[in-house]
Amino acid sequence: MKPAGEELPTGFVGRSPRIAQIRSLLNKIGPGRMPVLIQGESGTGKEVAARSLYNASPVGAFVPIDCGAVVGPLMESELFGHTRNAFTGAGEAKRGLLELANGGTAFFDEIGDLPGELQVKLLRVLQEKEFRPVGSLQRMKVDVRIIAATHRNLEKEVKAGRFREDLYHRLNVIRVTLPPLRDRREDIPLLIERFLQNSGKRYILTHELSQALNDYDWPGNIRELKNCLDRMMAFNSGPLLHFADLPTAVVNHVRGTREPEMAMAASAGGEFPAPVSPIMPLHLVERVAIKRALDHLKWDRTEVAIRLGIGRTTLYRKIKEYELAQD
Ligand SMILES: Nc1ncnc2c1ncn2[C@@H]1O[C@H](COP(=O)(O)OP(=O)(O)OP(=O)(O)O)[C@@H](O)[C@H]1O
Ligand SMILES: [Mg+2]
């Protein structure tokens, strides 16, 4: 038996009870051919879950189909293929994505964005296991496992008349709901560790930074956490990553949640991010001192450099290093 928290070969990281439950569900239903509907906010790992499901028992190909991207008249032929000269500019016959997925899995990403006319055609694939390439008179048999994902609430979409109810019921045979990251905070350190490891370099987080990352709500979920770390690593050759390296959204959040301490800092004429401990890292002091001077002197860099007692070049370097910008 695998210890809790150990990932699948596909990289489905997480040790929270909800993720452990989902992981075992994915392993259990992986070998079947039933349709699976994956729901979850943006960035919660719907595609990662779909691939894990497929990898639990990989047969045939895994073909991702981005329902939001295939728009316009070419969409139908993308999906179902077309015969030679089926329409102006069609040229040679082309196999569609569904045919490529034959014997395997088609992953309909953002299924909520699939236009009405294609919803009907997909329903037919699910019901009758066949489709007709554009320009062809003959129907083609397919055996495809359908995994669909959406960040939308499909019940609401059905009620609003934007999504076909019959298709919804066909897709919603087994449902996997991925929880937002803020509801499974115990996975945050694990994910951070994974993303830092993936960089191939050695990074260490300061205590404040690690606390801020664990406290933040991550509205963009795992994708936002990954982007945040990627960004910090891109600007920093390491090994130490600081609170000051955080994107503004996270910093503002931390400031907001530590208001009393902030008020104290403000009344002292400061604008320091609320200190987590009485120790204020020097780089943070420096960052705030420079930002304050810049704002106070309306970003007159020459004057700021003189008043701070540093060279202009140093000032420019530090503005870049601390990613300071005019508000
Ligand atoms: N459990 C996980 N373990 C490790 N990395 C993950 C996990 N879940 C998601 N990720 C990473 O987070 C990012 C977002 O994942 P994914 O694209 O699967 O999310 P999504 O729900 O499809 O997001 P969107 O709605 O933005 O398309 C990817 O970089 C992915 O590698
Ligand atoms: Mg996605």
Rg result = 26 Å
* Largest beta sheet: strand ordering: 2-3-6-1-7
Question: Quick one: how many beta strands?
Answer: 9
Succession of helices and strands = HEHEHHEHEEEHHEHEHHEHHHHH
- Low-confidence stretches are 1-10, 259-276
Average residue-wise pLDDT: 86
Strand content: 5-15%
Shape: elongated
In angstroms, what separates the terminal alpha carbons? 54 Å
What is the highest CATH level, the class of the largest domain? Alpha Beta
CATH architecture classification name of the largest domain: 3-Layer(aba) Sandwich
Question: According to CATH, what is the topology of the largest domain?
Answer: Rossmann fold
CATH superfamily of the largest domain: P-loop containing nucleotide triphosphate hydrolases
Q: What's the number of helices?
A: 15
Biggest beta sheet summary: 5 strands, parallel
Structural class: alpha/beta
Q: If you had to describe this structure to a student in words, what would you say it looks like?
A:
It is a single chain. With 327 residues, the chain is an alpha/beta fold. It has helices spanning 17-29, 46-55, 74-80, 97-100, 116-128, 154-159, 165-171, 188-198, 207-215, 221-234, 248-257, 259-267, 282-296, 301-308, 312-321, and strands spanning 36-40, 62-66, 105-109, 130-131, 140-141, 145-150, 174-178, 204-205, 240-241. Helix 14 packs across helix 15 (312-321). Strands 2-3-6-1-7 form a five-stranded parallel beta sheet. It has a two-stranded antiparallel sheet with strand order 4-5. Strands 8-9 form a two-stranded parallel sheet. It contains 15 helices and nine strands. It starts with 16 loop residues before the first helix and ends in a 6-residue tail after the last helix. Strand 4 and strand 5 form a beta hairpin. Residues 46-47, 109 line the site of magnesium ion. The site of adenosine-5'-triphosphate has 18 residues, from helix 2, helix 8 and helix 10.
